[in-house]
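User: Reviewer 2 asked us to show a designed sequence for the structure in our supplementary figure. I'm pasting the structure tokens here. Could you produce the per-position amino acids so we can include them in the response letter?
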């Protein structure tokens, strides 16, 4: 069975403060808390994918340091806020490693809905700056837990 973790990036400063939108101080602390809680649940990703945006990369780095500094760490295409979730769904087909993906709203609820078979095209509810863990049995994904920030 494959394990997939979908993570919404931590709280970021506004574009008026910094157009690159790095994590805020509170966002860093909350992300460290969520990453530690994920690690306590046994999360040890083999690969960490992020969108390439600064706030997603910084969030991914925190999970990388806390959960598995030996995992691969890459910016991946198809994880931006308005990208079609089918791209990543298709990439996950046949994947047997534990993958942690750090992305954005409204992308993550749409990907979650697509993976779990939700009928609403907008996807499912997703915890703001939180994490959702999914398990795959073949092509079917099932949510097994979630963490709020």
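Assistant: Here is a per-position design you can include in the supplement:
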């Amino acid at each position: 069975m494959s394990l997939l973790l979908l993570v919404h990036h931590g709280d970021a400063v506004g574009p008026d403060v910094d157009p690159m939108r790095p994590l805020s101080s509170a966002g860093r602390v909350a992300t460290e808390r969520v990453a530690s809680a994920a690690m306590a649940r046994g999360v040890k990703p083999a690969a960490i994918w992020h969108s390439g945006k600064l706030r997603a990369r910084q969030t991914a780095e925190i999970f990388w340091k806390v959960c598995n500094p030996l995992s691969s760490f890459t910016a991946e295409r198809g994880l931006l806020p308005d990208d079609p979730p089918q791209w990543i769904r298709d990439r996950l087909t046949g994947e047997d490693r534990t993958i942690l993906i750090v992305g954005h709203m409204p992308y993550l609820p749409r990907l979650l809905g697509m993976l779990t078979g939700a009928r609403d095209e907008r996807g499912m509810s997703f915890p703001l700056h939180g994490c959702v863990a999914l398990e795959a049995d073949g092509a079917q994904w099932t949510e097994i837990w979630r963490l709020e920030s």
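For the response letter, you might also mention the following. The mean pLDDT is 94. The chain has one domain: 2-147.
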